């Protein structure tokens, strides 16, 4: 599953866009430097019912922003994405390529 597909699935499961979840994480201080992934994963599991795989996709965005390594763009790998920039504002508003 691509990083973007994980973020899209998070939106499907929670009804919240990745950007909305990032805002919630910020309100809780979970985007602060040094925050442990486990703290974010616990919050996502308790409040939103998300598992580790989906949670780690959001942890990546919290720590690194919406950019992913170019090795994940194109190709045929399991985690390949169409772009090196993840769309955080919801599936309905994502521009078509």
Outline of this structure?
The protein is mainly α and 97 residues long. The protein has helices at 3-14, 18-27, 37-48, 52-64.
From the structure above, extract its key features:
mainly alpha; 0% strand; globular; 97 residues; DUF4287 domain-containing protein; DUF4287
Number of strands: 0
Main β sheet profile = none
Order of helices and strands: HHHH
Helix count equals: 4
Helix content: 40-55%
Termini separation: 19 Å
How much strand content do the residues show?
under 5%
Enumerate the spans where pLDDT stays under 50 for 5 or more consecutive residues.
Answer: none
- Write down the Rg: 13 Å
Averaged pLDDT, please? 89
Apparent shape: globular
The helix/strand class is mainly alpha
What is the count of structural domains?
A: 1
Helices, strands, pairings?
Blueprint lengths: L2 H12 L3 H10 L9 H12 L3 H13 L33
Helix pairs in contact: 1-4, 3-4
What does this structure look like?
The longest helix has 13 residues, at 52-64. The chain has 97 residues and is mainly alpha-helical. The protein is built from four helices and no strands. Helix 1 (3-14) crosses helix 4 (52-64) and helix 3 packs across helix 4. It is globular. The chain has one domain (3-86).
């Amino acid at each position: 599953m691509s990083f973007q597909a994980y973020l899209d699935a998070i939106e499907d499961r929670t009804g919240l866009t990745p950007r909305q979840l990032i805002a919630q994480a910020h309100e809780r201080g979970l985007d602060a430097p040094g925050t442990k992934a486990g703290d974010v994963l616990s919050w996502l599991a308790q409040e939103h019912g998300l598992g580790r795989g989906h949670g780690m996709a959001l942890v990546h965005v919290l720590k690194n922003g919406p950019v992913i390594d170019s090795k994940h763009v194109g190709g045929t790998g399991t985690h390949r994405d169409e772009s090196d920039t993840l769309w955080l504002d919801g599936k309905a508003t994502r521009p078509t390529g």
